Hints:
The chain is α+β, with helices and mostly antiparallel strands.
Amino acid sequence: MATLIWVLFAVAVVTWYVVGQSLQFRKYQGKMLVTCPETGKPAAVRVNFWRALWAGLRGRRRIELATCSRWPERAGCDQECVCEIEANPEAHQAWTIAAKWFEGKKCAYCGIPIPPVKHIDHMPALVNLEKNTYEWNQLPTEELPAAFEACKPVCWNCHIAETFVRQHPELVTYRPWERGGPLGEYVPEQHKDGDESARRAA
């Protein structure tokens, strides 16, 4: 009986250690965005999570890439960008970058604040200069920085509505409202009044 207790205790300790290491290395999971040391441009990478976890279980620290948007053309590089990830893995996660960008922003169409970005919720979207909307996580990760600079935020509801209008214009009756922006986005009433006053003054 005592032997069985010690075996169960050992199994519990090992399980606790493995689970603890797994949780610790979760920060290396998912798509990440780094600056390629060779080109100085954004690159999308994934860490080899299982190899990193296995090394961690043996008391070692070994972080290496499993994929990169510059592969296979540049496969076999020195993976110097790993240093960026090791310094602050959370800051390089695509989800973290997107969540910070959408934080505090309002939908370009309806003006409602964009909800916090979460894995289990509908994804907010972007609207580009061609007035096409798409969910941010549909973009290649390496294109996110440029998209965030060129596009405006859109809530999921407006994204679905705009997508339907774009795909089925014959089923839609268009009634213009406070859309005076260059992308057809929402313009607050006070801005419209200001523009009208400026036109009258001119």
